[in-house]
Amino acid sequence: AMPGATDYLSDLNDAQRDAATTLEGAVLMLAGAGTGKTKALTARIAHLVRTGTARPNEILAVTFTNKAAREMKDRVARATGLVEGMPWLGTFHAISVKLLRRHAELAGLKSNFTILDTDDTIRLLRQGIEAANIDTKRWPPRQLAGIIDSWKNRAIRPGAVPASEADAFNGHGPRLYAEYQQRLRDLNACDFGDLLLHVVTIFQNHEDVLAQYRRWFRYILVDEYQDTNAVQYLWLRLLAGGHGNICCVGDDDQSIYGWRGAEVGNILRFEKDFPGAKVVRLEQNYRSTGHILAAASGVIAANKGRLGKTLWTAGEEGHKVRLIGHWDGDEEARWTGEEIESMQRGTRGMRPFGLDEMAILVRASHQMRAFEDRFLTIGLPYRVIGGPRFYERLEIRDAMAYFRLAVSPDDDLAFERIVNTPKRGLGEKAQQKIQVAARSNDLSLLEGARLLVRTKQIGGKGGAALAELVDGLGRWHLMVREEASHVETAETILEEAGYIAHWQNEKTPEAPGRLENLKELVKALENFENLQGFLEHVALIMDNEQEEGGEKVTLMTLHAAKGLEFPAVFLPGWEDGLFPSQRAMDEGGLKGVEEERRLAYVGITRAEECCTISFAANRRTYGQWQSSMPSRFIDELPEEHVEVLTPPGLYGGMGAAGGSMAASASPEMQTLAESRIWQRAQEADVYASPGWRRMQARAGERPARAPAESRTTIDMTADSAFTAGDRVFHKKFGYGEVRAIEGDKLEVAFDKAGTKKIVARFVLPAEG
Ligand code: ATP
Ligand code: MG
C-alpha cells in the first residue's frame, strides 16, 4: 500500500462499493440527498489509482464548484497518499480553460487569449448595439448578453440560431451575436460561455484532437449531473463517446439550475446514451436524522415531475424540524442570532453546537442584510460564502458613494466612483479635466467639476450631464443639512441620480436582485437616525471584518449550499413571494414552483441534526409594511415531524385574538394544525395596516402591541395621524408629546430628550 493511504472502501455500503469498484463502462448513481454519492465518487477515483487501473492524469472529474473540487482533491490525496500528479479535477469551466489554452488556434484565438468578465462583455455588446444604431435604452446590452448566454448554454452558434428565436432582441439578436463573436476573435478574447462552446466546437471539427483526449482521459466522473446544461452534456458525450467509461452521479430532486439552462432530462437519458450502463440506486441516507429526512421527503413528494425514490436512515429520529413565525424580518434576524447563541451553550434538549457547525441558508442574497446587521450588532462572527457580503456589493457601494457625497461633498473617492455611474458620457477625458481643475485650484473634485460647469469647459452631452449631477449633489447635500428625512433623501438621491432607472433598464437575470438589494439598503437606513449615523455604522462593519480566523456562522444562498452539509441549519424567509420567489410563481408556473420546491428539499437535506425553518408575517419595503403569507412549502411539511416554536414577542400583545391563542396552546409544543399559521399572519396583517393604526391612534387607544425596537417605522406619510397633544413613542428619544405638526414632520417635546422635529412616520402613537 502507498504510504499514508487510508482505507477508502471499508466504510462504504454494498451499493456504494459496487459503484466505486465497477470501473469499466458507464455507471449512473441516481440517489437522493445525503446517500453518499459524492463519497462513493471520490472512493472510485481512489480505487482507479490504487489498483493501478489508471494513472492520476488519465482521470477527469467534474465538480460543480471550485470548493467541491478542492475537497475532493483532499480526500483523494488522503485515500491514495498521492501528493503530486493529481487527477484533472475541477469545474467544467476550469477544465475547459486548460483545454482551450492548448488548442486556442483551432478556435481562432492565440493561447494567451483573455477571458472577459461581465463588465467587459457588456461594454463590448454596447459598442455593437450602438454601431447598429439601436437605442440602448430600449434594448439594453445586458439583455443581449442574457440571450447570447442562453444560446451558448445550448451550444447554438452564430448562424445556427433556430428560426423560432430569430426575432430575439427585436430581430437583431442573431446578427449582433455573429458580430460580437467576430469582435471577440479580433480582440483575442472570449467570454465565459465561450470556454465550453469553443472546446465542443474543437472536438466536433477536429477528430484527431478529440481522439487524443479520448485516449488521454480514460475515466470520466461527474458529480451533480442533474445540473448539466446542453453544452456541458455535449462536452461529456464527446469525451466519453469512445470508451464509455463514465460515471455520473446525481439526484433529479436536486436539479435547481433550470433557470440557467440545466436540463434534468440529461439524467433520464443516460441509459439511452450509454447502453448497458449500470444504474446504482442508493437509499440509505447517512447525513440527516429521521425527522429531518422525513420532513424533506414530505415536501418533495408534492412535486409531480420526479422519478420518486425512498430514503431511509439507520440513525436516530433526532429533533423534529423546528418552525417559527416572526412578526417581521428584523425579529427573525434577532431571534436567529439569540438562538444561535443559546445553541452554542446547548438548549432545548440539544447538544451544544459550535459556530462552524451552524449555517443560515437564504433564498435570495438580499435576505442576508438583516442577519449581517444583527450579527454585527451582537458581535456574532459570521462568514458569507459564494458572494460578497452585503455592503461589499457593487450596487450597494455605488449607492453608498452617493450618500457619502451628499453628507461630505469633499469625498473625492466617492465622486470618482459615481461621476460616470450610471453612464453619463463623462469618459476618461472629461474626468481628467475635472482632476486638473480640482488640483490646480486646490478644490475637491466636486468643486472642480462645478467650476468646469460654470465656465462651460466641458461641452456636449457630457457637459449637460455633469451640470445636472453637480446640481443634484448640491440639492442632496442641502437635504442632509436641513435634516430632511434621511430615508427620503436616500430615495431621492437614487431616483434623481438615475441609479434606480439604470438597473431597471437592465433586463438581465441579476438586475432584479440588485434592485432588491437597493430596497434592502433603504430599509436598513430606517434603523438609523440619519445618513451620517448609517455611514458610520457601515464604516465600522467594513473595518470589523479584518479579523480572521476563529469559528464563524456560515451565511449563504441555497443554491451555493448544494452538496454541503451542516449539523444545524436555519432556513429563514419561507414566505410566498420570497420562497417560492414571486418570479417563479408568476413566470415559471407549475414548473417554476417545482424548481423552488427542489430548492426547499436541498435546503432541508443540508441539515444533519437540527433544521429550523422560519417566516415573518411582515416585511418592510421602502418604508411600507407588506404582509406576507407563510410559504406553501410550510403546509407541505408533514405535521408529525415538525415542532412549532413560539416566538417570544408574537402573542404577547396581539390583543384579544392573540391573547386567547397564546393561552390555549402549550407554548413550545403546538402542533402545526393548531397553530393556524396563516391565520396569525392575517391577523398580523390587519394589525400592521396604517389605516388600523390611525384608527387606534385617533381613538386614543394604546396600540395593541407595545412598541418594540423593530417596529418604529409605520408608514403614515399619507396624512398625519397626529394632533397636538398626542402622546407618541420614538425609538431613540422615548416618549413625548406632539406640540405642532408641519407637513409630515412633528415637533415633539420628549420627556427626556427635549423638543425635536421628527418625521411623523418614525414615531408611534402611545397611550396618554
Ligand atoms: P448530496 O446529494 O447532498 O450531494 P451525497 O449523496 O453526495 O449528498 P455525501 O455528501 O457523499 O452524499 O455523503 C453524505 C454524508 O454521509 C457525508 O457526511 C458522508 O461522509 C456520509 N456517508 C456517506 N456514505 C457513508 C457510509 N457508507 N457510511 C457512513 N457515512 C457515510
Ligand atoms: Mg454530493
3D structure, described in words:
- The protein has 768 residues and is an alpha/beta fold.
- It is 45% helix and 14% strand.
- The chain has 31 helices and 21 strands.
- Strands 9, 10, 11, 12, 13, 14, 15 and 16 form an 8-stranded mixed sheet that branches.
- A hairpin with a 2-residue loop joins β14 and β15.
- Adenosine-5'-triphosphate is lined by residues 11-13, 16, 33-39, 251, 254, 286-287, 563, 565, 605.
Number of DSSP helical runs: 31
What's the domain count? 5
Query: What are the bound molecules?
Result: adenosine-5'-triphosphate, magnesium ion
Oligomer: single chain
Task: Report the end-to-end length measured between terminal Cα atoms.
Answer: 83 Å
Level-1 CATH class name of the largest domain: Alpha Beta
How big is the Rg? 29 Å
* Poorly predicted segments: 1-5, 650-717
CATH topology of the largest domain, what is it called? Rossmann fold
Compute the number of strand runs.
Answer: 21
CATH architecture of the largest domain: 3-Layer(aba) Sandwich
Structural class: alpha/beta
Q: State mean pLDDT (0 to 100 scale).
A: 84
Helix content: 40-55%
Instruction: Choose one word for the global shape.
Output: globular
Superfamily (CATH H level) name of the largest domain: P-loop containing nucleotide triphosphate hydrolases
Report the portion of residues in β strands: 5-15%
Protein name: DNA 3'-5' helicase
GO molecular function, one term: 3'-5' DNA helicase activity
Enzyme class: isomerase
InterPro entries: DExx_box_DNA_helicase_dom_sf, DNA_helicase_UvrD-like_C, DNA_helicase_UvrD/REP, P-loop_NTPase, UvrD-like_ATP-bd
